[in-house]
Amino acid sequence: MDDQYENDEFENGEPDEPTEAADDSDAAPAASVIKERSVVEYDPLQRYLAEISRYHLLNREEEIDLGKRIQEEGDPDAAYRLATSNLRLVVKIALEFQRIWMQNLLDLIQEGNIGLMHAVQKFDPYKNVKFSYYASFWIKAYILKFIMDNWRMVKIGTTQGQRKLFFKLKKEKQALIDQGFDPQTKLLSDRLGVSENEITQMEQRLNGWDVSLDAPIKEDSNTERGEFLSSEEESIENQMAKKEIESILQDKIAKFRNQLSDRELEIFDSRIFTDTPLTLQDIGDKYVISRERVRQLEKNIIKKMKVFFKDEIPDFDLYE
Description:
CATH class of the largest domain: Mainly Alpha
Oligomer: single chain
């Protein structure tokens, strides 16, 4: 899931089209539904909804301004405002998924909030897309992944096609029956755009049950199912080979760093070779240069690094 306004992980697994509204009308239905489902007068869900209702919703101009501050300056206060103003949108979407999950709604809200935070980081204010519409893809993607991972002890959907089938297979089969067709695997495959093998596997997963590896093969047997599974543990040879490669890379990176100027080294350490990169503006302010100049320097360093590694490790493919 990158900077596109479509979520590949979610695209074919979403049960309904996302809505583009995130106004005051979104919060009212959610509040009434939650109140009806509450067991006690002040349960955690009501308390959470009361807390998030304190944050006012943003208009389009405010969203764009906050988005620019986040993208160009890495402003944490702007990110906080953009996220908190859309917490009610997460609740609304979580309620749509609860008919499938039928368990703790707060679990879905929590996962949706993680998706919302990713949307805040990736939102491009220069594209003509409303933030609530863009964020709904991320929110639904994280909620959907949580449901898929926790539906059973064994995951029943790991690929894009399987996520799509999880929600649409049963519905499509019933639609074919209503139209007078026999829902054979080939027909379902054509209608859903996935392979016949995936159809068969998903039907087996949905219709089967989790089985313990410690369970005996037969009632009168002392042999457990787990004894017939081959070990997938990585061989000692592969482990040693990986350690050797890591050692070589560390040595080469240290050698490459010695070839960089102070400014290039700052960009390499703060932008390229880090899990928490600084913004272009931060580095530009430090060296009194524009963000575009920092971007050009970063691009040149990456190009220089590719040439260096090709010369130093001829068999190492940097493009994989």
